[in-house]
Amino acid sequence: MSLPSYHGTALGTSVHVVVTDPEHLDRAVATVERVVAAIDLACSRFRDDSELSRLQAGDGPHEAVVSPLLAQALAAALRAAELTDGAVDPTVGVAVRGAGYTVDFANLPADGGPIPLEVVPVPGWRRINLFPATRRVEIPDGVEVDLGATAKALAADLAAAEAAATMSGGGVLVSLGGDVAVAGDPPVEGWHIQIAEDSRAPITAEGETVAIRSGGLATSSTTVRRWRRGGVELHHIIDPATGLPAAGPWRTVSVVAGSCVDANTAATAAIVRGASATAWLEAARLPARLVDRSGAVIRVGGWPAPVDQTS
Amino acid sequence: MTAQQRRIAVAERDRALRLHRRITVSSGVVGTMAVAALAVAAAHTNAGASSTSTASTSSSSTTMTSTSTGSSSSSTGAAGSLSYGAASSGSASSASTVTGGS
Asked: Is A213's Cβ below 8 Å from some Cβ in B?
């Protein structure tokens, strides 16, 4: 059965809102658009007028009392770093720009001349001071924060929760570029979500599909947000240990967790961790599906085995 | 307290926090005693750091204690693990959306 849904774009990616009750769709979409716009204004590094850009404008160090939303986004990023032992680190700003990701991806040339690529570990998340009670943040000189690894998933979580709160019963699914959060009462058989390398792929009759009832499902991949400089293929997932695009065996990782932020955090950490990711995901008891560079798929942590969709 | 006074109080509190950290790092015994004293002070004041109506001195104590219990900055006070989720086999014919890279 097809559920009422909306497709749009925001944050440089796709927005998909699905509800169980058609009467709730318009209000849910309005809520999602408002939350996404607020996150973009707070956290974008591609907008000069974003709060994060203004905070980091000019030479450091930078100190300020930030908005509740930016404080929440920074806290989410620091928590992700802490829980992944720094595999997902918000201080990759300089590194990701150094890898050539200098403008919004829609405006990033797919190909270009060579750029210097040096192994330089990122400054590290512990150098950021955030005082949650006062929302004061201190960023030392030479440290540039990039919330790209967590802000979109946080937006999905916040949007789904706020949309569900506006409903009198029923549930909502919010997908921002394939980072999926659900809230409220799910459909009877759960939310069915198809797994792909690219979130823009169409739903197919044979595609591997899982069902969730709460929390989130997110996918990190090195296959979509890619560019080439001097013949070198680059992507947006930075390994904090090298300051360069992660070079591990996984090209795409999908994870189910109690929230979209946690799912996305784990998925990105898995790509950075490389070969040790499967044991880490198992230990964390996070259902995950990993695709290696050859296309081989490994499922861990209770990820359901695929079923024959044609039978 | 005026807005200007509140800003000054917040700035003083944060400066005191930085000093407190240096003390804690450079002198374990003194630092531990300071944390304990601040914890007692905070227990008595029972004031959240967001309570800007308190005097700047007690606000400083509260924020420091909050930090000593792990709620600040690089130690976010978060739970020790990512939250769990569960998935079951789904049906492509019922799929509502696609997850993937973007």
From this structure: yes
User: In which order are the strands placed within the sheet that holds A232-235?
Assistant: A111-112, A226-229, A232-235
Q: Which residues of A touch B10 (CB under 8 A)?
A: 65, 134, 136
Residues A254-265 pLDDT 10s: 999 999 999 999
Flag whether B85 is in a domain.
Answer: no
ipTM: 0.89
Give the structural domain span for B8.
Answer: 3-67
pTM: 0.81
The half-sphere exposure of A69 on its side-chain side, counting CA atoms within 13 A, is 21
Domain presence at residue B23: yes
The answer to whether residue A128 neighbours chain B at the CB level (below 8 Å) is yes
Sign, CA torsion A58/A60/A66/A69: positive
User: Are A211 and B88 within 8 A, CB to CB?
Assistant: yes
Q: What total number of domains does chain B contain? A: 1
Burial class (CB in 10 A: 0-12, 13-18, 19+), A23: exposed
